[in-house]
Amino acid sequence: MQLSVKRLSQLLRSNAVISLMGNGASAVLGFVMLGVLTRIMPKDELGRWLLFLTYFTLFDVVRNGFVLNGFIRHAASEHTNAPVFRRWVGAAWQLSALLTGSIALFILGLAVFVPLIAQSGLVPADWFSDSGTSSDGFGWFLTLMLVSMPASHSMWFWHAQSRFTPIQIIRPGIQALQLILIGIGWAKYGQLSSTWLYQSYALAYGSVSVGVVLFGGSRLRDVRRGTRTERRALFDFGKFSTGTLLLSNLLRSSSTFLISAFLGPAAVTVYTLPQRLLELVEMPTRSIVITAIPQLVALHQQQKVGRFADEFHRYAGQLWIALLPVAVGGFIFAEPLVTLLGGSGYEDSVLVLRFFMIYAALLPLERYSGVGLDALGLPNRNLQKVIIMLLVNVVGTVIALYLFKSVASVAFVSIATFLSGLLLGFRMMKPYAAVSLPTTIRVGWQQGSYLLNRVRHEFAR
């Protein structure tokens, strides 16, 4: 009994469980917030906010991809060497500030093309006034880019030090603050606009950033310590990593952009609702996959090819079999899940969710194929894989929208998109490591059967 308690205590303190619990809290808050907003806002107004959030997520992915992965790869082994680690921290700040400033200038430059963008439907309508000039949407977007920097950087530095607990406090903390501000706005005005959501998100993010600066988590004091050597190393790795992460995010957001352009912001809400329910699979996938990267990288660097393949099969197979029942359950209970989250008026989202749950069954295997390529030091091959997936998704989405003018048809395209990425990823890894899709599935099935038999045995006793 004491041994079991000790093992349970160790499990609860593990990085995988901490990451899973933090992302779980974030997902729950996300569900609550979306459930509230679907009931108090019109579909088109909510669609504008969701499109705004999609654009910011895209920017955040670029910033994270350009700095975070390279920072972890180079600085994680140096986190006990304070002078060296500080140089990496300074370089990360410098490169991130340069990237953020460049993107900000690019966004300001878009003002030249405002009339064309306003008519395309690719940008939230309330970013522009009736005359076609920029409105406060651009301003709040730029503000959010700046105030989010300290909070984002703090999570990078803690990640490199394998300190996952504060990371998992910050993310749900931002959502909780925004949810409170939404409640205040609703109580005060009786209705909400998308602009209020922009403002509340910037204020929530900014408040958390102030907190991490005051407690030293942002490590602003090290900003001058970075040198050209560290900046160059981060840039060389980040140019591949950014492309991969950006295109991976576009796999999801490109459909949102195209739906907005073809069908309008109300259709974005219909599509996004089941996307959030997809978090039931995506959230644990992200949480667990990210904790496997350091060990796989270490095995590759130690040239333990056989061990690398064994661990890969075990990690990917276990995650696949663990999340398969969730995907099946989501498919079966799609209608009550949609009603629970969005209330009435979202019947069109039910079929979308069922298509999403089919591709969700493939998601853990596809994500691990990408992680495997990165761990093998092949970010360029991972980039190629994601480019092909993006092409499949964009071409398929355009055809689906042109022929069927249906959000559900776009969701169906996602199945072909992730199946192509899954098959490509395993094929690209094969020359460098003895991994295979059939072996991964077999190991996962064996692990699931073993666990099920253990449970039956315990109940029988």
From TrEMBL:
As for membrane topology, the entry says: Multi-pass membrane protein
Which InterPro entries has this protein been placed in?
Poly_Biosynth_Transport
The cross-references to Pfam families, in alphabetical order and at most eight, read: Polysacc_synt_3
Q: Which UniProt keywords apply?
A: Cell membrane, Membrane, Transmembrane, Transmembrane helix
Major location category of this protein: membrane
Q: Spell out the subcellular localization from the entry.
A: Cell membrane
Q: Name one GO cellular component term.
A: plasma membrane
Residue ranges annotated as transmembrane are 12-37, 49-72, 93-118, 138-157, 169-189, 201-221, 319-343, 349-365, 386-404, 410-426
Designated name of the protein = Polysaccharide biosynthesis protein
Q: Which organism is it from?
A: Fibrisoma limi BUZ 3
